[in-house]
Design goal:
Helices cover about 50% and strands about 15% of the residues. By secondary structure, it is of the alpha+beta class. Helix 3 links the parallel strand 2 and strand 3. Helix 1 packs across helix 4. The mean pLDDT is about 95.
Length: about 100
Amino acid sequence: MITRGIRSMMSLCQRAGKMTTGEIVKELISKEKAHLVIIAENASDNTKKKIRNSCEYYNIPYVIRFTKEELSSAIGKYNRSVFAVTDKNFAEKLKTEMDLNM
């Protein structure tokens, strides 16, 4: 379950224009403009594999956590499964909130 802190940080990141979702995430990864990628647990296996492989190739930290519904709700969008944080400070705060040691 997504915590209040993670939900708040994702919402703030979205409102600040520092989070992108959908197809453009792969492009941001390849341009190394993503600082953290969040993949929903219930994303398709193909989506998880493509994004995970891209992140590993470009050495971008990623996490597969939460559901599409939880993540989409946090940013006020519908049915999103892949999220890229494009600001280093927001990425660090989210990693801290998620207890990630990357």
